[in-house]
Design brief:
The structure is a single chain. The chain is an alpha/beta fold. The protein has a single domain, classed as Aldolase class I (TIM Barrel), CATH 3.20.20. The protein has 10 helices and 8 strands. Strands 1-2-3-4-5-6-7-8 form an 8-stranded parallel barrel, surrounded by 5 helices. It is globular. The protein binds 2-phosphoglycolic acid. 2-phosphoglycolic acid binds next to strand 8.
Length: 261
């Protein structure tokens, strides 16, 4: 059973006091939620303080990036060990903003995924097509290229060691969400691809949807069979909207059922 997971990507937002305030409100709003994983990804500067604030809560921590080398003369970079040391379980890799603004490639994603796994972190690997690629009918080839290269030579000991986020670039921060059936179609494709690339057990890797997820569309997205959760940007910066997303309902029910526990 794939346990649903909701990840809040705070991007370059929140000073340490602001992060504390947001976490304080979130903790009150989601403390009794069970049967789903709740992960937040504050900026590097707030990770260590937030990790202390999360002790005893039902939330865990992710970083938004890492560098593949272990240590050395790499000014401005952060290693897997440092991220683990800051209290993180997860690390987001290959977000489209990193590909777009910081020249990340499938090859750098691949190095980062391997470094994260070797360092004991669970990578959340982002893939997704641009609007031009979708309109040219290239969605599947683009996803296939990103996953095949990004996961080249990657070996997993368990399907829980990797999370994929499908984030169509045209849906990120635009208010324009993929329809649940558009997302489902790509998620099913990704699941098949993962089995081909990593073996049968990879069918249980969780595949998240990201791109303008909000309280208004989460329930519908989560009814799709291959959508295992969400990577949430803008709406994760407000405690009440993120808490509502975490409490998504499927067919009017709060899917907090024992089979996910
Ligand atoms: P958004 O961002 O929810 O603001 O569209 C999603 C993401 O970039 O992960």
């Amino acid at each position: 059973m794939r346990k649903p997971i909701i990840v809040g990507n705070w991007k370059m937002n929140c000073t340490i006091p602001e992060a504390f305030e947001l976490v304080k409100r979130l903790k009150m709003m989601v403390s009794e939620v069970k049967g789903r994983e709740i992960v937040i990804a504050p900026p590097f500067t707030a990770l260590s303080s937030v990790s202390h604030a999360l002790i005893g809560s039902n939330m865990t921590l992710a970083a938004q990036n890492l560098f593949w080398e272990g240590k050395g003369a790499f000014t401005g970079e952060i290693s897997a060990e440092m991220i683990l040391d800051s209290g993180c379980d997860y690390v987001i890799i290959g977000h489209s903003e990193r590909r777009q603004f910081f020249a990340e490639t499938d090859d750098s994603v691949n190095r980062k995924v391997k470094a994260a796994l070797a360092g004991g972190l669970i990578p959340i690997v982002c893939v997704g097509e641009t609007l031009a690629e979708r309109e040219a009918g290239e969605t599947f080839p683009v996803i296939e290229r990103q996953l095949t290269n990004g996961l080249n030579d990657v070996r997993l000991s368990s399907s829980e060691d990797l999370v994929i986020a499908y984030e169509p670039v045209w849906a990120i921060g635009t208010g324009r969400t993929a329809t649940p059936s558009q997302a489902q179609e790509v998620h099913a494709y990704i699941r098949g691809l993962l089995k081909n690339l990593l073996g049968e057990a990879a069918g249980d890797i969780r595949v998240l949807y990201g791109g303008s997820v909000k309280p208004e569309n989460i329930d519908e997205l989560m009814t799709e069979p291959d959508i295992d959760g969400a990577l949430v940007g803008g709406a994760s910066l407000k405690a009440d909207s993120f808490a509502r997303i975490v409490r998504f309902k499927v067919h009017g029910m709060a899917k907090d059922t024992e089979h996910y526990l």
